[in-house]
Amino acid sequence: MKKITGDQAEAHYRRVNPETGEEHNVLPEYATMSRRPGIGLDWLKKHKDDIYPADYVIHNGRKMKPPKYYDTKIGDEIDDIKRTRKRKAANNPDNTPERLAVREKCAQAKYKPNMKNKIFPVFDSKAEYYMQPFNFQTVGEALRAFMDTANDPTTTIGRHPGDFTLFQIGEWDNATATYTLLDSHINLGCAIEHTNTTKDD
């Protein structure tokens, strides 16, 4: 469980009701942890000599850096350990200026926010109109939300899944505030096709 911050936060915590098109935000992840003392303190006291000065722990079969909490509990010994860490980092070929520049570019490309959102309305065949559209970055996200609604019997779509069909009609670019409509609508399926148990309407 990890709280999302920065440019990705708004999209990550936004949800859209496919039936009404209404947008709402969900609460970020939250965890309360034991700190008086921390639940790992007794374990550290028992196994300290196995962790330091080797300066790693084994988790799921992999070597990992000790948690910062452990560093704060081993006293003055941590000063020598930190100096050793800096010396190793300086000699690490993965930390040369050239390699760091490449890693920075890769990181920026990985976390660059997607500025375009696809537009999805739902067509009500009984009322003969398209409901207010909603936005998602991917078709998969829209289908997941549509499927959740189709399987929820408290919603109109869930009670009458044969009447409602999801379409993709274009894109919204939130960097330029422009819409781009497709030449023809893409039919993403009737709600009844996305129910866990197909039923007659």
The portion of residues assigned to helices is: 25-40%
Unreliably modeled segments = none
Q: How would you state the average pLDDT, rounded?
A: 84
Q: Helix tally?
A: 7
Rg is 26 Å
Give the number of domains.
2
Q: Find the count of extended strands (DSSP E, 2+ residues).
A: 10
Beta-strand proportion: 15-25%
Distance between the termini: 39 Å
Sheet with most strands: 6 strands, antiparallel
Structural class call reads alpha+beta
H-E order: HEEHEEHHHEEEEHHEE
Task: Name the shape in a single word.
Answer: elongated
What does this entry look like structurally?
There is one protein chain. By secondary structure, the chain is α+β, with helices and mostly antiparallel strands. It folds into two domains: 6-27 and 114-194, no CATH class; 41-109, no CATH class. The chain has seven helices and ten strands.
